[in-house]
Amino acid sequence: MKTASSLSRNHRSTGRVTLSDVAKAAGVSSSTVSRALRGERAVDPDLVARVLSVSDKLGYVPDPAARALASQRSNHVTILIPLLSNTLFVDLLEAAQRTLRSAGFQTLMGVTHYNSSEEEQLMREQLLHRPAGMLITGLDHSASTQKLMARSNVPCVHLMDLPENSESNAAQIASANEPLLNPYCVGFRQTDAGEAMAHHLIAKGKKRIVFAAAQLDPRVMQRLNGWRKALKSKQLYDPTLEWLNPAPSSLALGGLMFEQIMKQSPAVDAIFFCNDDLAQGALLAAMRLGISVPQQVAIAGFNDLTGSDQMWPPLTTVRTPRAKVGEAAAHMLLQLIQGDEPSQPQLDLGFDIVARQST
Amino acid sequence: MKTASSLSRNHRSTGRVTLSDVAKAAGVSSSTVSRALRGERAVDPDLVARVLSVSDKLGYVPDPAARALASQRSNHVTILIPLLSNTLFVDLLEAAQRTLRSAGFQTLMGVTHYNSSEEEQLMREQLLHRPAGMLITGLDHSASTQKLMARSNVPCVHLMDLPENSESNAAQIASANEPLLNPYCVGFRQTDAGEAMAHHLIAKGKKRIVFAAAQLDPRVMQRLNGWRKALKSKQLYDPTLEWLNPAPSSLALGGLMFEQIMKQSPAVDAIFFCNDDLAQGALLAAMRLGISVPQQVAIAGFNDLTGSDQMWPPLTTVRTPRAKVGEAAAHMLLQLIQGDEPSQPQLDLGFDIVARQST
DNA sequence: CTGTTAGCGCTTTCAG
DNA sequence: CTGAAAGCGCTAACAG
User: In this complex, which of B61, B130, B312 lies closest to A65 when CB atoms are compared?
Assistant: First the structure.
């Protein structure tokens, strides 16, 4: 004999306070409660007040699963980043997460490891959860990933990159056929950043300047393009001074690359590393090897990661607005989720050359 | 006039392939499909095969929201960490995430900022999603957070810490009354680690040894306890040589603390920083100030974070098994979720003193 | 502006 | 071992 508690012999009861409990207690229908609680449509202010008070008297909390099932959308936002081992992406994640959470969204993180099939797999998994939106690093995605995104109809903002030459892009739109031709994105011009650093080094009188990169992601390659453009314009371009290493970026690798570069091309007078961890590693290696920076060779980095200002000598670098990117992208996504069109679908947040003593 | 597609004039149809589509196509009931797909109970192997083939012919994918609603549990696992700005926690997160994902669970991350009310808030939010399990950093939580956890009945594994003196703990269990007296956890003995580093420094002949800490979380304080114990046992304990700074840990702060320490107590012959970022900052500051390490003062750190082996001189530190902790904790949680009892509810993964040239 | 009604897609008793 | 039926808790047409 069961206890009296299961009066209504419910098939399966969870003990949770439900919407209809609130409705009953407030003497209204559950749709009214639903509407009142979500601030949807017009509901009599008095009713709203009553519902609100009853609902928190009973300790009602909406069930996200039920809500997702009924409404076909969740309050999840997926964010896809390449790695967790690069501070850059962690900063991005943190900023986006904070912004989204304060708007009531849950952030689901996926790590792609720069692998497009992992990315596709993650995308597929995430889409099952009917995310309200997606944040995804970069503009480069496999055709099938793009197709998934397009078909899903989930609003998406791309991070850290902008489409190349937006003018000609605008021209293409007229005859647009492909999806994602004009994606929402917030970032800065990687090409310009590469170019700017080249000009900084050139202005310092450097002539034999190395471009040293690892983890050759599309953004790195864009910086390389800008870089080449700048050097060519000054007749300083020398393809043998490009060191491209596909391995993951790290302090240790930076040290290693520095040693190799100095061994093979002792006449080099500056090195631009495409990420600060490499540059920091190089600075440390220089110290070990007794090579003076910037006298013997200047060293510059990219991103202005933690510690770059602490190095000895302090590292010249490009400060990239990653936290702002995370935040602005989250805001843009929030707008898209609400069905609004962002005033600036491609948001350029710029970058700064931070000239310190390593150059 | 609507197109013929809405034959059954469904109230709201989503176009998704559902369980009952599969059931129809396979000529069985949807409960059978459900059971077959989840490998639950005994289902005729032939049927399982048929269901499986039909289901992926149709491209069926289960809807997590519907599943969560019906079964009252999700495949989410929540992980709560204090910060994203300490590599330690990122490594933990990454390892746990990878392990959980390969077991089919979604990781939901929450950042508490070492703030117990944020922690409680996050816990509350997360619990709404009916997570299958939780991973939470540390053993120290507010009473209300503990109550939430206990009431939720969601299995939980604590990270990076172990209860003090487990022997006496075992004795308490007999008369156990409080919850969480014997929590599931995987970590190592912070106290022992502090003690071990003290002994390392003492063995190097150091006499005036500073303990320098920031972000004074409970684990740091445990290290301090072990540290004190070791120094006292050698009559080297001097309370004026403890520098405790509640600010967040960072390279810059490490440099600052180093300068202050050297100014105020020039006779100091060793400094143990409670996190590698501080120690790295100190090493860099030493270089700036022209103080030789380890000749003039030895410097040691904690955690063996990225870059510590690259510093000059390479940093002596305590290597903590954070990735293993993340992974093992995830495995333990997976067991708990399955209803199994882990063979070792308190898993001690140990630590290593990594003696490099800074001491 | 509010209530009624019919599901969202799945799991779970409960019988057979 | 399988099927029928009854929800999980909520939202969204559709009337009023």
Answer: B130
